Amino acid sequence: MSVVIILIVASLAVALLFLAGFIWAVRSGQYEDTLTPSLRVLAEDSNQAKQNPISETNSKLK
Amino acid sequence: MSSQPPKLPAAPAHAQKLAGGCFHCAEPCSAGAFVLDGKSFCCFGCQTVFSLLRENGLEQFYQLQAAPGTRIRAASAAAKWAFLDDPAVSEKLFDYADRTQAKVTLHLPTIHCVACVWLLENLFKLHPGVGHSQVNFSRREAAITFAPVKIKFSELVALLTSIGYEPELTFGETEKTGPSPWRKKAWLQIGVAGFAFGNIMIMSLPFYFGLDSFNGPWFKAVAGWLGLAFALPVVTFSAGDFWRAAWLSVRQRTITLEVPIVMGLAAIYLSSVIEVFEQRGPGFCDSLCGLIFFLLCGRLFQKKTYDRLTFDRDYKGFFPLSVVRKNSGGEASVAISQLEIGDHLILRNGELLPADAKLVSGEACLDYSFVTGESEPVARAAGDHLYAGGRQVGGAIEVETVKSVAQSYLAALWNHEAFRKNSDHNLDSLTNRYSRRFTKLVIGIALAAAVFWIFKDATKALKAFTSVLIVACPCALALAAPLAQGTAQRILARLKIFLKNALVIERMAVVDTIVLDKTGTLTTADARGVEFQNAECGVRSAELSAEEMNWIGSLARHSTHPHSVRIAKALLFSILPVTGFKETPGGGIAGEIAGHKLLLGSRTWLAKQGVTAGKNASPPKITDIKNAGSAVFVAMDGKLRGAFALENSLRPEVAQLIAQLGGKFELALLSGDNERESARFQKLFGARAVLKFNQSPSDKLNFIRELQSRGRKVMMVGDGLNDAGALKQAEVGVAIVEQIGIFSPASDVILDAAELPRLARVLAFSRGAARVVRAGFVISALYNLVGVSIAAAGLLSPIVCAILMPLSSVTVVAISCGATAWLGRKLQVEKLQVAAPVRLNIQYSTFNPQPIAKEAA
């Protein structure tokens, strides 16, 4: 039966880890703006694709 | 849950016009346009921005999005923003400032695409004084860090303006207290509740299936204690707002829905504690956390909806932030909060008068359309009293303030008590009325069950009492209204109909009388109703060529005069450069386009300019045109060409709307205008409707009051500040705006003018939504009936609780959202009968309310 105890402790430890991660994420403001980062990624991508956007995309698709 | 993602870049209008359009802003370019590097531009401003960005290696701006810019309207003079360097002003705007750096968050309404985000975050490449900048797209905000030593705040604002991002600086905004903290807290509350819910549920699984006997009694104890430990932060932290709200309502001696919820939560937790202590079972902590989790999700959904629709109710936001004050040493910019009685102010063309004042010198010609809704500017002579809220048209004037900002006319109207009766409306919501009866009933049943069991089997009395409170916890009920109304609110927002809060739907559902304002609501100062008569024969003709009309439009565009604005809207299709523009206040405007001298103005003014009518000319008979309001005469190269008659034109959808509403509601019309058009409107509204003319703002307010005293539920539909009092007094105030986001101080609903014909549908929709809420109540009541009868019998087990309570919540959520969305689809399917005309919107920047012609899709 001690197996159950170990399992409970292990699962709770993992769960608490995730809770702590979530609290850190909220505190550091990651939930403040969920839209702009997705746009920023687009802009950075095309920065690399500046020279030859079409061939760049094709090579990525491969 | 997630909010509607804003539409990403591709504006269809852009793509269509791109061929041959301006490389920067996609506006059409005329022949002889500005060409640089093989790219054509519509104006010098756009070309300047292009070369500026290219010099600084920011050409990628144009690769992220085709023609991503906004039209550069005028060269931005840093001097215009000089007032921002006044520490009294800047300290209100800055988030942080020390000697070496300052951080400011600016609202930039023109942010609209990926390229904007990119450009603004690369702002440091344009000026060495700018440091880090970060854009919040959904709020259209940019947080910019800069070194005030290298770039003054005014220069920063001028730089932003010069590349097309003019910040919207309002007084209301300057008094903000930073980003709303609820967001973080709400996420944390949900996270904690969800975490506890999931983990307790996993540990409780064996009990649901009766498997706990395998593990022995110690497992029950461990699960029970862990459950209590997890549930404690959920009950205290996650559900904290419910406790506060319940306490508040108890102190106010009313019963809101939070009271029975909190009673239920307390009962569940306490009975769990007792069960675990007595080692009878694992308690009900799984159900408890699940309920709180669902409740919080519903609330987050509601808040997210509200957050996007926050209205600026602060009247100070509509006054200019700063004015030029004359002092012994010359002139200086001061914040209006620092104004004192007796100050001498200089008002230039287009600036607002912040307080009641006396005209000292200059030709005052004030446009009170912000206050009265009437577009005719009023001329005043030296020594005259000027009311606050007027916008100077023409040359600069000097005034002496006679009242402080807070005492003046506008502020008095705004501070009217009618604006502050939010709370009593809200307390009377459908949910709260229901919950009052509900709570009494539940406590009655719980007591009855307890009394019954005391006589029958005293050991079961406490369990029966708490069981009833547990099962009757009206969580499903609490979800029904917010979800149905929140969904409805979002559906309406997608149709450009914005509600102040979800409760407005409830109030809209009971409206039986609709009062409409005339000016700006039913009539429109748009391109329609501008008719031209030529000088020779006095009849309408197409004598002006398309090119000439465009010249006139281009000239009129430079003026902020309402007549010019209308003419520009009607005639302008491609903007041409104007040289030697001159505006004579109260007279007219002059300028040279494509080598032709154009004059546009009153007849007497044209005569003064030496314009004479042709040989056999008879003056145009403006009276021939029905409902003609005013006339604007046109001369080209010294020759009178004719006149524009400006009709007070009715919005085309109005007749249809009135017909739809007439059958179901009592209608009334209020107008600040004279009775000239009385007959026309009586015919439109039918004989039964009340029409009132020459109404002052307080007359309108009293009219609504009088209707309400007769027990009518009134919806007021208006547009401006002049009916703000009436908008607030009415059960539902609807503000009609030409462009979303200008202002709508007292209203509950903001309606895009183009959506006016939908009003009847919207009212029907809100009735449907209210019915959905009631259906949710009935369903949750049925669940409660079943649950309470089990509980009163003293038979409540954890498994019954764990199934019954989430099930009732889920059913109510599904029905509320589903049924409302279904109603919404019906609303959207209804095609508008009138094809929406292509129209140019007028947008007023709050600081310097010069209309900006902006393309609307």
Number of domains of chain A: 2
Strand percentage of chain B lies at 15-25%
Count the DSSP helices of chain B: 28
Strand content of chain A: under 5%
Span from first to last CA of chain B? 29 Å
The string of secondary-structure elements of chain A, in order, is HHH
What is the global morphology of chain B? elongated
For the record, the count of structural domains of chain B works out to 5
- Contiguous uncertain segments of 5+ residues of chain B: 1-18, 171-179, 309-321, 406-427, 535-542, 614-628, 739-745, 831-857
Span of the ends, CA to CA of chain A: 53 Å
- Indicate the percent of residues in helices of chain B: 40-55%
- The coarse silhouette of chain A is elongated
Extract low-pLDDT stretches of chain A. Answer: 46-62
**What is Rg of chain A?**
21 Å
Mean pLDDT of chain B: 71
Largest interface: A-B, 28 and 35 residues
Number of helices of chain A: 3
Secondary structure: number of strands of chain A = 0
Which class do the helix and strand fractions of chain A yield? mainly alpha
